[in-house]
């Protein structure tokens, strides 16, 4: 091609020497080509046309257009599943590799229609609606890759959800014919109805080498823990019927049994329970007078009375899910959808997604043998717990049972968690419904520690130009015995800090950090110079705190290392007239904030403030030059769920320098601004995280009738 | 020539056209790459034209009928027991639940030791733990679970502690019953060179509590994986974790460390032989030595000398203290001492032990405390741990400490955890959920008999996003008969019932005289319940069914309080529902002369106990007091009619690792007459008629502190230096502004 381009550069020079006849001929030709080019260009650069054309060629096809593959009789059959398979023996991790997103890549084989030598398909149904939904969901997800060489997990497009519709031997052969089968390594099969009459195996009977099985109805003997994934049996009713979520609480019936295929032995026992406990139990069965078909699926009867299924499930606190021929029951899904607490009686059954879901919080599992004791067992569960279980059951359905997509994504996430265990989802993420996730707190400093007194704390003084007052503060703080270091954050870019010789002499290291911009958030920067856990944030005008008060504050912080421990306390109030939050600095009986003009806190909160502050709060504070302390209080309260601790009695915290310009109007605008901050932050956090308390911390012997000289902290509260 | 030109021009046009076409195509691809849409655009699972016509995977009637109801369930259950034995044992088939359904509940029996039988130190500790646990019975008839007297810990035939002929001996036991309901503890199995899982005798249907269990041999829901522990592992109490502070940034001097043997041959050598590859001498220190065993020099390779030299340069303990992550590769067996060592040292374990069933994996969520690596991906380990963010390091590290202290720090805890896991299986509908096992304070301190509901415990309010209830129950301990209407208890009843948070009052009648008739008590705005305490001091902490609120206010009959004091303390308790919140403080101290713990009632600058003669706490502690503590301690309390408050403080502090909280009170509890009295250590402050003027009372309390500390195995009490006062307490502001002004009246 390069060669022809070279020729082309000489091309135009040739034209003038041509004959007219030829010229016309060439011009015509040229125009035609040019037009063609433009048309092609238009076609190329018109995005819509490309997509639609791609869709046309790829998507607008029928399942029946899938290529037909004939399986030779002699085609190899995989080995039966190996019960000893585990991720480290039968799974090739090298295919998944290290990747920064910690996400496995999943490849789906293109659809093929397998038939045996005489042309009979291997499955009576072919691709089912559910399996198609599952595969489309996976192909739309982040897990999907079309690049077979980059894939970590392979999913055959052969539908094996229901073993009954399969020809076992031929299905197995079809699997083995897949181009990347390689003894089933890293292949994942989805099956919901395993086994067949008469003894119904609890895992898919199709020989499958080392393939992973996501199966519904595993028993403890067929389930390879940590390798297979136990999945629910999908109930198509989920898509058909819309059951709105009901508030948890007591229901009309206590126990309800809705299954139609309950073994005679169990039905006898259930009926005995019904006799003993009467109306609390409702035992439903098939309706004998209705004709077969869809209608019968949606109706249940008791003594001639007809009930709608699954709506009736919402009328009961507990719903029985007994095993049938198989362990996994689609009823479980219906029951969860109705927010009814399942009472699962299926010995040896591996509950769906039990690797990650805590079923004890959403269901009651009772050994089949104990069916006669069911009523007593259920009665012993506290009401509040039943309500929690109802909520939990519904949440499980919504998140993990409601659609084939949910089932597929959960399965892949579980496998993903095994391959990247260090990035696995936590118990809370799997099990807490969103309501709980929203209101609960999991403090990052959850371990109850009382850190040792040494090495003390680092005092961080934010200053601009009040040098005299700053020096007084430094002198005062340096008297505190647990002070480890002084860090002066010099926020004035126009002026250099005074010479070293002018600074007060202190025994601890003193370090001055000059900032690039005069921003309030500089005071909360996690400077490397802060080597202690405890930070004392202090303004350059707080000269009235005694060293006893500061030392005591540090001692209190040691007992509450996850809280803000500060001196002046403030309160937020709900203003009913205005319908918004209000800031309060008066002498109140309550406290919900402490000012960071003088407060101890953990250095971790500096890191959170600087890097994890929600929304635009940080910029907002810097722009308004106000409320950095309120923001800090919000942040800490939100992440720990705890109130700050105000220490020592109230003092007058006005600096002598400011009293001169301190006017009423200034004070009022200040209050309005602070109130605005609270409202702004509450809206960014989406909630009001501040906690109100009525206590403050004083030394044990504060104001007690006791010799002052024997008190650890005698000089407290003096003005 | 003409033809050539024609072709050239035509060729040129073709070229342009092709170029444009390809360029366009290329651009489109680039665009796709940038927007990450390539995968979807290129070849998604097609959206079939006829997808709505696809059949369902199963007919709904088929789903509901489920192939009929199968065989008789009773027969099936019976036949299972015959099929699923030995290596396929499960609780359903190999455990006799009927043995545990008796009156006595979950009881564990230990076979008596045979004459001349020598038991290793570790096994002795295990047996002691069982004997001292609340589940021990000496009567095999009421036992649910059996523990062998034969030491089965070390089943390495080359070991000196190997016990021969176990098979024959256990078969001789009349109760053996093919191992049903037996637990067999084991730390080492198999021997050189393969270290198989074989114990050298047939365990039959016994539950294996074994270290280094392999997932393939592990019978899920039946066996229990326990950690490997050394013979120096303490019987009880145990050292606390090494983490004392959460430094930020949390990275330590070294990122990742390993120091240990390198096997030149045999099982486990693959992994250990490769460890030196990740050593970089800077932040990753992975040191191996060839020096182990007798004939290491025979197998010596070229690296050995250099490695051995490097090995000596670093100290293992120093590395443990200063590493963020610690490699825990398999040894000859899957588990190693290293695992518990790094857990205690808050050095986040990075496991390289494929197929290891982690200790107590039934209940513990290990992925929140360790990094589970893969032996095959050793070289990825450095980049994996480097990518762990600071929040995660903080969380993992704290969790190692939580797990260490909850389940591993002593043999007692390891054995009790094993028993509790089995108990949870036996009584599965009264058992702990995963959350209880994995949240503070750990599963051993959560007794599911009390409740299976999380909100009924004092520990989980924040996790559940709820706050404690708004009401309390007052429990008044009455010991003196009712003779006059001006007795202190009458005043107390008035004061308590006036609190708007009080929902009921229970009088625990512990007097010699029978309780007076209802009409003798004053009319109350809240229900008044009189219960008989049977003159036992410990009865004040019995889990009375009548207590309906989460908060309990425990009171002595002669307590003098104000309603506002009660209200304030209750407010404080709602902020600290897991602690004791009370008024009069006491303290413990270490007496270096006597080398014993001491108790003092002096006024001091710190305290570690608040007396339960007037204190708020969660009602769950009643349950723990009566069912978690051994009866021996409660007997001591009843015999001396003393120390119940100290014991309660021990209990709560051992659960929370935190001190109690003292709140403000108007004047000193029980009206201390003078300072001198409170200074005199031999006399408990109080009025002349009270029992605590008795010097013996105080000596008893000293002894109690020592006795309790020895049962707990450590000193759980923690000192505090503050008390909580109302926000405006004694501030210079008008009393009209103050909510708790009564507290300041003299």
UniProtKB/TrEMBL annotation, chain A:
Enzyme type, top EC level: transferase
Location(s), subcellular: Endoplasmic reticulum membrane; Golgi apparatus, cis-Golgi network membrane
Annotated ranges, domain Glycosyl transferase: 457-702
Entry function: Glycosyltransferase forming with EXT1 the heterodimeric heparan sulfate polymerase which catalyzes the elongation of the heparan sulfate glycan backbone. Glycan backbone extension consists in the alternating transfer of (1->4)-beta-D-GlcA and (1->4)-alpha-D-GlcNAc residues from their respective UDP-sugar donors.
A single MF term (Gene Ontology): glucuronosyltransferase activity
InterPro entries, sorted: Exostosin, Exostosin_GT47, GT64_dom, Nucleotide-diphossugar_trans
UniProt-recorded name of the protein: Exostosin-2
Domain of life according to the entry: Eukaryota
Catalytic reaction(s) noted: 3-O-{[(1->4)-beta-D-GlcA-(1->4)-alpha-D-GlcNAc](n)-(1->4)-beta-D-GlcA-(1->3)-beta-D-Gal-(1->3)-beta-D-Gal-(1->4)-beta-D-Xyl}-L-seryl-[protein] + UDP-N-acetyl-alpha-D-glucosamine = 3-O-{alpha-D-GlcNAc-[(1->4)-beta-D-GlcA-(1->4)-alpha-D-GlcNAc](n)-(1->4)-beta-D-GlcA-(1->3)-beta-D-Gal-(1->3)-beta-D-Gal-(1->4)-beta-D-Xyl}-L-seryl-[protein] + UDP + H(+)
Xref: Pfam families: Exostosin_GT47 (PF03016), Glyco_transf_64 (PF09258)
Membrane topology field: Single-pass type II membrane protein
Record keywords: Coiled coil, Disulfide bond, Endoplasmic reticulum, Glycoprotein, Glycosyltransferase, Golgi apparatus, Manganese, Membrane, Metal-binding, Signal-anchor, Transferase, Transmembrane, Transmembrane helix
Keyword Manganese: yes
Organism: Cyprinus carpio carpio
GO cellular component: endoplasmic reticulum membrane; Golgi apparatus
Subunit structure: Part of the heparan sulfate polymerase, a dimeric complex composed of EXT1 and EXT2. Could also form homooligomeric complexes. Interacts with NDST1. Interacts with GALNT5.
Pathway field: Protein modification; protein glycosylation
TM spans (from-to): 24-46
Keyword Manganese in annotation: yes
Gene3D superfamilies for the chain: Spore Coat Polysaccharide Biosynthesis Protein SpsA, Chain A
Family: Belongs to the glycosyltransferase 47 family.
From TrEMBL, chain B:
The keyword Transmembrane helix is assigned to this record: yes
Signal peptide positions on this chain: none
Coarse class of the protein's main subcellular location: endoplasmic reticulum
Ranges where the Glycosyl transferase domain occurs: 472-729
Subcellular location: Endoplasmic reticulum membrane
InterPro entries according to UniProt: Exostosin, Exostosin_GT47, GT64_dom, Nucleotide-diphossugar_trans
Cofactor(s) of this protein: Mn(2+)
GO cellular component terms, A-Z: endoplasmic reticulum membrane; Golgi apparatus
GO molecular function, one term: metal ion binding
Domain Exostosin GT47: 103-387
Protein family: Belongs to the glycosyltransferase 47 family.
Cited function: Glycosyltransferase required for the biosynthesis of heparan-sulfate.
Protein name according to UniProt: Exostosin-1c
Naturally occurring in which organism (per UniProt): Cyprinus carpio carpio
